[in-house]
Automatic annotation (TrEMBL):
<keyword id="KW-0486">Methionine biosynthesis</keyword>
<keyword id="KW-0368">Histidine biosynthesis</keyword>
<feature type="domain" description="Tetrahydrofolate dehydrogenase/cyclohydrolase NAD(P)-binding">
    <location>
        <begin position="138"/>
        <end position="284"/>
    </location>
</feature>
<comment type="subunit">
    <text>Homodimer.</text>
</comment>
<dbReference type="GO" id="GO:0004488">
    <property type="term" value="F:methylenetetrahydrofolate dehydrogenase (NADP+) activity"/>
</dbReference>
<keyword id="KW-0658">Purine biosynthesis</keyword>
<comment type="pathway">
    <text>One-carbon metabolism; tetrahydrofolate interconversion.</text>
</comment>
<keyword id="KW-0521">NADP</keyword>
<keyword id="KW-0028">Amino-acid biosynthesis</keyword>
<feature type="domain" description="Tetrahydrofolate dehydrogenase/cyclohydrolase catalytic">
    <location>
        <begin position="5"/>
        <end position="119"/>
    </location>
</feature>
<keyword id="KW-0554">One-carbon metabolism</keyword>
<dbReference type="GO" id="GO:0035999">
    <property type="term" value="P:tetrahydrofolate interconversion"/>
</dbReference>
<comment type="function">
    <text>Catalyzes the oxidation of 5,10-methylenetetrahydrofolate to 5,10-methenyltetrahydrofolate and then the hydrolysis of 5,10-methenyltetrahydrofolate to 10-formyltetrahydrofolate.</text>
</comment>
<keyword id="KW-0511">Multifunctional enzyme</keyword>
<dbReference type="GO" id="GO:0006164">
    <property type="term" value="P:purine nucleotide biosynthetic process"/>
</dbReference>
<dbReference type="InterPro" id="IPR020630">
    <property type="entry name" value="THF_DH/CycHdrlase_cat_dom"/>
</dbReference>
<dbReference type="GO" id="GO:0004477">
    <property type="term" value="F:methenyltetrahydrofolate cyclohydrolase activity"/>
</dbReference>
Length: 286
């Protein structure tokens, strides 16, 4: 029987733990605070920002939302980041990506105080995670790791194949899997014989952003399949639905365990953001 990994339930459980830790910090007079910055009015981004804010409040933390117009200049955004860096009530800062074209996102990410960088995108945190010296891990790979280890705590010697080499998922995912003693392959759009590479995987992490690209006959029987993709596709009745980067039904028939979309990695991303924020509060205000 294939295990369908319930990311929604795992995320709810993690949020309960974060709520307990938040309550303990509040006893000590510290209310953890998360600032989320959204530039522009992309509808999908607005939905995510709203659900982040709601869950932040639900676990007992303070939520600070900053919505800026789409024509905000880089200097204006950097000024807001500087203000949030200096604000003692703010423990975590998330600048929603992607940013409009007139803003250099690398420059903005480097301006965030690494101690408040709850996305784990600042080069300081990237380096600390890569060397295994602590640091804040990016929420999506971190959440994916928790889901993998919920079905298989010991990963020593397993071959993990990550499809996708982004800075926000593929590369940090590789670091976290290496830390658990996996043999790691990062595959991408130029990889030769991709299906055969994936067929060698005990753990498949799909993070390419191409709907249902990874087929069932690419999956080794008994593999763990983690689908990071969230793609909205049109359906025949003129509506739309969310699908991952994995052809779910086909892959589920082969896999030992698989994450669905929606209800897999997505909810864990937000729960890990809250975890990173409470941890940042603890470290910074210790
Ligand atoms: N600085 C930054 N940090 C981010 O972490 C970040 C970002 N920018 N930009 C956008 C992406 C996207 N993202 C998601 C989080 C949760 C779900 C999620 O909970 N998805 C639900 C479904 C949501 C739906 O129904 O649309 C699920 O998969 O079950 C999805 C996507 C975080 N992002």
């Amino acid at each position: 029987m294939t295990t369908i990994i319930d990311g929604k339930a795992a995320a709810a459980a993690l949020r309960l733990r974060v709520a307990d830790e938040t309550a303990a910090l509040k006893q000590a007079g510290i209310t953890p605070g998360l600032a989320v910055v959204l530039v522009g009015e992309d509808p999908a981004s607005q939905v995510y920002v709203r659900s982040k804010a709601r869950m932040t409040v639900e676990v007992g933390m303070a939520s600070f939302e900053h919505k800026l117009p789409v024509d905000t200049s880089e200097a204006e955004l950097l000024a807001l980041v500087a203000m949030l860096n200096a604000d003692d009530a703010v423990d975590g800062i998330l600048v929603q990506l992607p940013l409009p074209a007139q803003i250099d996102s690398d420059k903005v990410l480097r301006a965030i105080d690494p101690a408040k960088d709850v996305d784990g995108f600042h080069p300081i945190n990237v380096g600390l995670v890569a060397t295994g010296s602590g640091g804040i891990a990016p929420c999506t790979p971190y959440g994916a790791m928790l889901l993998i280890q919920s079905v298989q705590p010991r990963l020593d010697g397993l071959h993990a194949v990550i499809v996708g080499r982004s800075n926000i998922v593929g590369k940090p995912m590789a670091q976290l899997l290496l830390q658990q003693n996996c043999t790691v392959t990062i595959a991408h759009s130029r990889t030769r014989d991709l299906p055969d590479v994936v067929r060698g995987a005990d753990i498949v992490v799909a993070a390419v952003g191409r709907p249902e690209m990874i087929r069932g006959d690419w999956i080794k029987p008994g593999a763990i399949v983690i689908d990071v993709g969230i793609n909205r596709i049109a359906t025949d009745d003129g509506k739309s639905r969310l699908v991952g980067d994995v052809a779910y039904a086909e892959a589920a028939a082969q896999a030992e365990a698989i994450t669905p979309v929606p209800g897999g990695v997505g909810p864990m991303t937000i729960a890990c953001l809250l975890r990173n924020t409470v941890e940042a509060a603890r470290q910074r205000r210790a």
